[in-house]
Amino acid sequence: MRAIIKLNLLMVIFFVTLSAGAEAKGVLKGSSDDMPYEVEMVADGLRIPWGMTFISPENLLITERQGTVKLLNVETKNLSAIAGAPQVFAKGQGGLLDVKVSPNYETDRWLYFTYSKPQKEGAATTLARAQLVKQALVGWQDLLVTKPASTATKHFGSRVAFDRDGHVFFGVGDRGDRPNAQDLRSHAGTIMRLNLDGSVPTDNPFTGRDDALPEIWSYGHRNPQGLVFDHSRQILWEIEHGPRGGDEINIIRPGRNYGWPVISYGKEYWGPLDVGEGTEKKGMEQPFKYYVPSIAPSSLHVYQGNAFPQWRGDLFAGALVLTHLNRIKLDASGKALKEERLLDALGERIRSIEESKQGWLYLSTDSGKILRIVPRD
User: Fold this and answer.
1) 14 shares its domain with 43
2) β 315-319/301-302 pair status
3) Is residue 349 within 8 Å of residue 365, measured between CB atoms?
4) Domain shared by 2 and 128, yes or no
5) How does pLDDT run across 263-302, given as a tens digit for each residue?
6) What is the extent of the structural domain holding 16?
7) CB pairs under 8 A, 24+ apart, for 208-213?
């Protein structure tokens, strides 16, 4: 009997020690034993960390929506404040939004931001850039203040992406005024393309037209929340919020009309009625994929790392309302093979996705956490 009691006590000590070791490492309880990865806590206590970008292998720059910038050392987990952020319109969905390093960051040191800039007429989604010197942003430049400004507090967008030909892309939502998305005299409801210095490329699809703004690359978008350039497939991917249902992943092509609010797979908020004229119309693009019910997407990423070779080339989107990491398995040509929903047990609104040099995925959550997905062993 004493031997049995002693054995049981040893087993309890073993499992308590094992559990303590896991918690010391920061492994979250939502990490499933049958998955090839673990989810670790890297930081906590942030205020809606909206955008993230690695400025070096160990330093992650983070925007907080209320208008502050933090620098996180992912090895030491030290979090420090960065000065020099602009004044932002931090109301509703507005604030300091995305941040991305320049494709030429090692030589030009530019960081690109989107934010809601206060205006006399309300606020306008703005693309800007600055450089980080020690613990401060310097040389701030607003590259494009989109128009029109609006007093609405929703549908600002806005993510940043780069091709390898010297162009920067970013999007803005319809600002809550649906007709904007079909009006080429408005930036609202569009994806835009600029040169890295903010000038307009001469080969943009609407350059030279009196009835259209030259920065527009595509239009008919409701609220772009994820944007990423897939260099291996030469595809610009976008994900946007639908209304009640009808979130979309789109392949963005120059000059194309993506239909909002004329066509949609979503329903009106005030009743079980289709939005607009239906789901299809000649001259308007169909989504690559749509979600019914909505997942409320927040970001988009193409995985390129070696840590998880089975994920290479796949799309990942953060989900807010349905609180998971959405994976779209793609073949080499970009055809969707299947959808997988990861981390739903965590119950976190996943806001942003970034990939480290090691191929680990870093996630920010609206609850203020920075998480990372690492190989289980």
Assistant:
1) no
2) antiparallel
3) yes
4) no
5) 999 999 888 888 999 999 999 999 999 999 999 999 999 9
6) 1-27
7) 209/184, 211/184, 211/185, 212/184, 212/185, 213/147, 213/184, 213/185, 213/186, 213/187
3-state secondary structure of 103: coil
**Model confidence pLDDT, tens digit, residues 174-214:** 999 999 999 999 999 999 999 999 999 999 999 999 999 99
Number of domains in the chain: 2
Q: Which residue do the tokens 């080339």 mark?
A: 313
* Residue 155 annotated as catalytic: yes
**146 and 270, same structural domain?**
yes
Q: Are residues 1 and 101 in the same domain?
A: no
Catalytic residue among 155, 187, 301, 324: 155
Distance of CA 208 to the CA centre of its chain: 32
Q: What is the CATH number of the domain that holds 68?
A: 2.120.10.30
Residue carrying structure tokens 């309302």: 321
Neighbouring residues of 312: CB distance < 8 A, sequence distance ≥ 6: 303, 304, 305, 306
